[in-house]
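Project standup — Tuesday

K.O.: blocked on the structure for the chain from last sprint. Re-posting the sequence here as requested.
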Amino acid sequence: MAAPMQHEDLLKLKGFIDFVNANPTVLNMPQLQFVKDFVEKFGGKVPEGDFKMPDAGKCPFGGDAGSKAKPAFTAADDSDKSDEDASVSEPESDVELDMEGVIEADNEPAQPMGDSEKVPTEEEIDQASELRGQAAAAYSQQKFDEAINHYTKAIELNPGNALFYAKRGQAFLKLKKPNACIRDCDKALELNCDSAAAYKFRGRANRLLGKFEEAAKDLRQACKLDFDEEADEWLREVTPNAKKIEQHRIKQERKQAERKIKERQRAQNRARKEQAKQSSAGAGFPGAGGFPGAGGFPGAGAFPGGGGGGMPAGFDMGDLMSKMKDPEVAAAMQDILANPANISKYMSNPKIFNLMKNFFPGGFPGGGAGFPAGDADADNSTFNDSEAKRANNSEPKAKKESPDFVDDGLD
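H.V.: unblocked you, prediction finished:
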């Protein structure tokens, strides 16, 4: 029986089990609770205690085992083999990222952002500057909570100073509170879209959350506005993961575009097949089953001279179908079928007249006595002469002199 997992997946699973055998307390991590439940279901027992990272530094199954952070980007291959004969979707594929240094997101309550409509006085501006100095001193002494308090008071006095928010965000970074840092940096950029410090600290916060693409974008902008060696170092740190994610996304977008093209092509093929099917069922004649009428042609459905009901002797449906492709012929046939008396309009047209005579030698249904014998030219000339006579009859005649009239010579 074939294994339900790929060979590479089995190797990863083996590495994970070997690691757990050497470090059983790792199963106490929240994200591995399902494995712990599985072990205990079969009578096993997981030793109590917190897991401590071995000297090797990283788990063989990937990620920072010492943190509870989940991978920030798990890109599932959503390609479902859109071909109609595909019954099994492609297996999920993940982007292998270096998650070392990623931490769990914080739930720090939002700090006061000040009154955005407040216009500080000169005295308040000076007081806010003094508080900023005190905050910087506390920060240098690694008293980050104290620094945050000083920056908060400065913000309340002068809420329009973008640097106060960015520096408070920096202090939150030191306390491993990236979400709080991001909120402050967002506010700083709202006040000053060219704040290099805000881009720098927000980029670092995104990196701690595993948002590598966002981190790279922010750090790149920070270096562009005001180059900083530390920001540049952070940028080089996140670039490899950011590139992997970008390449994977491009690949997925390309697959999605290819699927849409295939789906469109299949829809077009189905439409063509359906159209061909309908054309074949309709035999190319107007209406659902051929000519108007219950059984084909108007009237009882029989062709005069055809041997009683049905097609006349020698009738070539293929040839008729071929001639019906001519728009002029098709229009004329429609006109005649709607009213057989309209056949008189086409007696002078050799194309229509010969078609009617050749296929309906005994006469067209409802059209009176048959067609004159002879070749096409003779037929044409006969009817042309008839038309000419009718045309002549329609011309005004010259007034004839009365036979009783006698010119007496008088004017």
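K.O.: great, moving the ticket to review. The chain has three domains: 1-66, 96-273, 317-389. Confidence is low (pLDDT under 50) at residues 55-93, 283-310, 373-405.
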